[in-house]
Design goal:
Strand content: 5-15%
Helix content: 25-40%
Strand order of the largest sheet: 4-5-7-6-8-1-9-10
Distance between the termini: 11 Å
Structural class: alpha/beta
Order of helices and strands: EEEHEEHEHEHEHHHHEHEHHH
Shape: globular
Largest sheet: 8 strands, mixed
Length: 348
């Protein structure tokens, strides 16, 4: 698989309100900071990862983020799961009530998708910063990665991942207006084998390359966070299913993303040189703007979380991201169509 979208962070504005969705049996949720669904069916078999004891990860922000993790049953086709549902894990960083009340502009919720073979824990530093600025943030795991359901799933293909993500926002977000953000969705992995992704030396090498200041950020904790989900039973089969599906291939489809978008890029990105690759996004995406993150490598959301959060907040508070607060006239599923049109662009 060739490297595809590997920019540090890209936000896609999806300013279409849509219809709500009510799952079958539901349990109470505490997402009172937004006008999203108040309930959903939790996966009662799920136990959040014990990053401190089992993972031996000392970073407090990681422990705090893991403790917030839940898994919700979302609707999918029977091609993905015979039951018609799969468990999708996520972390909700609820908007700080005081910051939200003090804000002069209402902001849409932010749905953050992690990078290739990663997890929602990737946003353990950015999530709290955005929350403190009054932004409601949902960090979701893609099916087959992170801490999603791995057993009794027929397919972990790229299309299955997109379908489950659609189902997640139907269930948790009520298909309301949302901004979608993502980090480094793609990988230079071809046929080197799945086991190599569990390799400590490989993870350590990638860790060192990802930061402008590796002495501070390319720690053993960082390596463990990135590798922990790979040790789950069923992870290898899930990865094989994804690779056999052809993976995400957005290279020729980026130009079709015509919604307002923010591209954030580390000035000292040592993996994808910004002057070449960042400009390609701006030249290709008709409605995108670029912001450089100084003293930062490939992962602004980890290395410069505070600065990154402020730029995202400014984008969400801009007039172009003003909530429309209306539903489609024909009763169609607006966010569904946007997910279908945009996220399917990242398929073959």
């Amino acid at each position: 698989m060739k490297s595809s979208i590997a920019a540090a962070l890209i936000l896609l504005g999806l300013p279409d309100a849509t219809l709500s969705f009510a799952p079958p049996k539901s349990s109470s949720s505490s997402s009172s900071s937004t006008q999203l669904l108040a309930s959903y069916q939790e996966d009662l078999t799920f136990t959040p990862p014990d990053t401190f004891t089992d993972g031996q990860i000392s970073e407090e922000l990681c422990t705090a983020a893991a403790s917030k993790m839940k898994r919700v049953m979302v609707p999918v086709s029977t091609d993905v799961s015979e039951s018609g549902y799969v468990g999708i894990s996520f972390i909700h960083f609820a908007a700080d009530a005081r910051a939200k009340a003090a804000s002069k502009k209402k902001t849409l919720p932010l749905l953050l998708v992690h990078g290739f073979d990663s997890s929602a824990l990737e946003y353990r530093r950015l999530g709290p910063q955005l929350s403190a600025l009054g932004i409601d943030v949902y960090c979701v795991d893609l099916l087959g990665w992170g801490y999603t359901q791995l057993e009794n799933v027929n397919s972990f293909s790229a299309s299955a991942k997109v379908e489950a993500l659609q189902g997640f926002w139907k269930t948790v977000g009520g298909n309301g207006e949302v901004i979608v953000g993502g980090a480094s969705l793609g990988a230079p992995l071809a046929r080197a084998g799945i086991k190599v992704l569990q390799s400590v030396p490989l993870r350590n090498s990638a860790n060192q390359m990802s930061y402008y200041n590796p002495e501070t950020y390319a720690t053993e904790d960082a390596l463990k966070v990135g590798r922990l989900h790979c040790l789950r039973d069923g992870w290898e089969d899930g990865m094989l299913s994804f690779m056999q599906s052809g993976g995400f291939r957005p290279k020729e489809k980026v130009s079709q993303i015509d919604v307002p978008s923010l591209v954030l890029w580390g000035r000292q990105d040592g993996i994808l040189e910004g002057k070449e690759f960042a400009q390609k996004f701006i030249d290709t995406m008709p409605n995108a703007e670029l912001q450089w993150i100084e003293e930062c490598g490939h992962v602004p959301h980890l290395e410069q979380a505070e600065v990154t959060a402020r730029l995202i907040a400014d984008f969400l508070e801009s007039d172009k991201m003003k909530p429309l607060g209306k539903k489609s006239a024909n009763g169609s599923n607006g966010v569904d169509s946007i997910f279908g049109n945009l996220l399917s662009n990242f398929l073959n």
